[in-house]
Write a structure and sequence with these properties.
Blueprint lengths: L2 H9 L1 H16 L8 H20 L9 H23 L1 H4 L1 H6 L6 H28 L10 H25 L3 H14 L12 H7 L3 H13 L7 H25 L3 H4 L1
Helix pairs in contact: 2-7, 3-4, 4-7, 4-8, 4-9, 4-11, 8-11, 8-12, 11-12
């Protein structure tokens, strides 16, 4: 990652925002509900979780209304999962561009993270409306939400960089990603609080960087449980490490993209 590469990133910076805007338009093009899918998807999933896990299984929710508890976790998770999914396929879906025009290839998966921020913002607005409905006020730790979002973006990009690069050579990746994300969902405290797990399982769960992000987002926004600084530190450290490893790997193999994509 030489100075020349950083200079190229700055010189092509407008292209990054162009890609992000294009991704948003393509995602909802010819969709009957358009951007409303950003609301429908988490709400529908929240409803299913509330019925099966909140009402039937009676899983605790840290004293919060279960719809609010699950929606907050889902808003974060759907951003992460969408970013990883779109980023992993970003190079293959733009293969014709890669073989004809030069630009910083890293902007393709990165634009997925920017484009999905719109969905996250819409989900945040719905969450705010739900908080008003249930009479739940945010805590002072809500000021740390932007930091938690940045940590989540770094993690999603790190995973996305690796999967995007692998998908160029191994097209099986596009089949593995949805399955892997589904398993990761249930390994993350979305439908249950971290405190629901046995002590040893809680320690193991904190090695999942999304655990600290989701748990602390709930604690900061909804006040469901105490803000867990240890989990936040672990999530931040792992996310930064994953981002750095993913970026280095992406840079190492990107020179061959045009030959094999």
């Amino acid at each position: 990652m030489s100075e020349t590469w950083w200079s190229e990133l700055w010189r092509y910076r407008e292209l990054l925002f162009f890609f992000a805007a294009r991704d948003i338009k393509v995602r909802y093009k010819q969709a009957a509900l358009g951007a409303a899918w950003a609301v429908v998807q988490p709400l529908a999933t929240m409803l299913v979780f509330t019925i099966f896990f909140g009402r039937i299984a009676r899983i605790p929710s840290n004293g919060l209304p279960y719809p609010l508890f699950s929606f907050c976790g889902l808003a974060a998770w759907l951003y992460f999962a969408s970013t990883v999914a779109y980023a992993s396929n970003s190079l293959v879906s733009n293969s014709s561009m890669i073989t004809k025009v030069y630009f910083p290839r890293v902007y393709l998966p990165t634009s997925s993270a920017l484009g999905c921020l719109m969905d996250l913002a819409i989900s945040g607005a719905v969450l705010a409306a739900m908080m008003i409905y249930y009479g739940v006020a945010p805590t002072p730790f809500v000021l740390l939400v932007p930091l938690l979002v940045v940590i989540m973006i770094l993690l999603a990009l790190g995973v996305g960089f690796v999967l995007a690069a692998l998908n160029v050579r191994f097209r099986d990746v596009k089949h593995v990603v949805p399955f892997g994300l589904q398993l990761w969902l249930f390994a993350t405290p979305i439908i249950y609080p971290l405190s629901y797990l046995p002590t040893e399982a809680q320690r193991l769960s904190m090695l999942n960087p999304m655990t600290g992000i989701v748990e602390n987002l709930r604690a900061a926004v909804l006040g469901g449980g105490e803000f867990n600084w240890q989990a936040m530190g672990i999530s931040a450290a792992i996310s930064i490490a994953v981002f750095c490893v993913g970026l280095v790997y992406f840079r190492k193999v990107e020179r061959n993209f045009a030959d094999v994509v």
